[in-house]
Predict the 3D structure of the following.
Amino acid sequence: MPTPAIGASTTGRSVGRMPIRTLLAAATLAAVLGPAGPSAAAASGTIGSINLAPAARPAGPAPADRIAAIRRRHAGEVLARVLITDPRQLDRLDAAGCDQWTHGHQAGWHEFRLDQAQLELVRRMGLRHEVVREDVAELLAAEAARLAAAGDGAAVGGADFFADYRPLDVVASFTDTLAATHPELASVVDLGQSLEGRPIRGLRITGPGDATDRPAVLINALQHAREWITVPTVLWFAQSMLEGYGQDPEITAILDAIELHVIPVTNPDGYVWSWDENRLWRKNRRDNGDGSFGVDLNRNWSFQWGGQGASENPSSAIYRGTGPFSEPESTVLSQYILDLGDVAAHLDVHSYGQLILSPFGYDFVEPEGITGRTHLVLGRTFADYIAEVSGAIYDPGPAWGLYLASGTCSDWAHGGAGAISFTFELRPANANEGGFVLPPEAIE
Ligand code: 0X9
Ligand code: ZN
């Protein structure tokens, strides 16, 4: 079994008087818990003197047409868990176009979105299965109707940003506003451009003074377009840190000691596509030239690229791309991380599953020695904090325990950039609760 190249251990490092593990526990806790409630400022449509009204968005199809199209497209679809006893069964379901929501390729229970013909195939194959939701079309239509009814003005100006999911332009204006209202702490950073030329942006947050020697902590969300819950979660975390500075001694100490970088939308083209065309889109929007679109950004990172748990088939949901860092989105984020120089800790935020995954995921290996053990202890600590404060059960463990996946962001952040790194899978725990399509109440 190959031994991974491990970067410098960050285990013993501390930021100010704050051990890295405390910082990560605090950061993680805040990120997972979500917003405590609408802030009075945001509810009024302004933060400070900044008007939150978003820029005009291009007109799409009329809402009624859109919703009718969603109902037609997803008519009869169900969410089902299926017991796979031989990985070749997964190949057959994949060939039939079944949308696997759990991406493993091993025996065990897997969750799928299936139309009636695909469900019939599962029956014919004699696979044990259970339909957990029959209302996919309704779930998606109701979400689209709700978002259309909110309208652009209400999207930010009339209600709290965190009261519902927000399109890319509103995410961008909220990000700008957070920086504009905390100029002494935050600035907007521009990492580079997506394939379709959209900026990939984020916030750099640190206390006043010389930050040169402060280690960086980076949190990125939404590599996968349909995982909408990840965006408000990390933005709420950014807002909490900004509002807590000077109020909460622990947050103040953390921000005086580190540079925090929060990238809410790593895959802006996919995110826009998931809003405008296909809510359940996962990949970026690469034209693969064979009629298929999209590279799975979380299979495109250079560390162990092309190994197990990634596909060379462009139509696959886990298509790895033509080479390591073939995609601008993974390239610009990796370059940004390398340019920071001293990244102590990193979180790649996904949904769903309520999991805290530590390296590695490309094979059944873990970082050697104390670094590996530190990840496991930290993962357990995060899960305990989350349970204590919210009651939610998150399972910690090495990513390979979920399934093998190579070329992932978190494996690279640890194996290639030397950071302590985790992949978070946010709520819900399973498809019964809607999987990627959660009610807005789940944000808070
Ligand atoms: O498959 C992924 O990229 C992540 N799950 S998701 O449902 N959000 O797509 C998890 C990757 C974690 N790594 C491994 N399981 N190896
Ligand atoms: Zn994901």
